[in-house]
Task: structure prediction
Amino acid sequence: MRTYQVEIKEALCMTVEIQAENAHQAEEMVRQAYNNQEYILDAEHFTGVEFTSHEKEMDEQYRKQKRYEHER
Result:
């Protein structure tokens, strides 16, 4: 039996309306508010999930090969 690593990515999304002089300023204002925890994304903002699997032995073998190529 083989070992697999399965990555789970969840996406949350919230749209915020804000008045600003330009798009850059609007994004910076929302970024600061988000960093100050004025916007909290939770389960009601869920927009999707993605699963990606990788065979563990293959990943280790690939890293070893890349390391060997780098050392040459």
Summary: The first strand starts at residue 4 and ends at 12. The chain has a mean pLDDT of 90. The beta strands are 4-12, 46-55. The chain has one domain: 4-71.
